[in-house]
Amino acid sequence: MKTLFAVTEHYPVLKANENFLRLQEELTSTEDRIAYSRQFLNDSVQALNTKIETFPAVFLAGPAKATRRDYFHAEEADRGNVEVRF
Amino acid sequence: MRRLVLVAGWADSADPRHQLVFSTWARLERDCSELGNRFGLSFAVSPGFLTALGPGTIAEIVRQPTPPDTDRRIDLGLRIDIRDAVATITAPTLVVSGAHDFLVPGYQTRVLHELIPQREYVELDAGHAAFLERPGPRPRTRSPAR
Question: Which end of chain B is more exposed for a tag (fewer CB within 10 A), N or C?
Fold first, then answer.
């Protein structure tokens, strides 16, 4: 997103275009939602992994087939700038 | 921290009954992990919840390996005194107790509740593992019985 915003600095007309401004907002909002969701998932994994190894939940984790889960980790290639084509 | 929920907690381990229960558990755990499991499970959930698990599941649970650091956790349970610390909690706090909690009975959790400045109290139809026995939306709160 930073790259996209930097490019618009050279195109004042585009920068002022209402549709483009809306697109900028939408892309920023999407990135924020992805970051929030990633954090929410990893927080939930941490809570689960801790809970199933401590009393009293540890007793019931086995019969309930509750096991440790892995944290979400995005590959470097998936963490790059979003490619936007017009 | 904006809000806090404390489930089946207590503020001080000096209570004689608490010492008896936890020291017995510690000794069983030290001597035989299966006996420790049997004792721990007996106090972990309410009688109704435990019975509903059925003999097969109960047998499976008591045969499980002892979770890591169980002895240290029980030992810590014998030495808790957080009365001064909980009095400094500024976040609105919901204190949850299980009506059938025989590990940390309601009278101990009510002491904890009374020490917290901004507090609500709720008693669930559950044992010590109230959050496992009664998952779901937050129940209505009420003042603790005297």
Answer: C
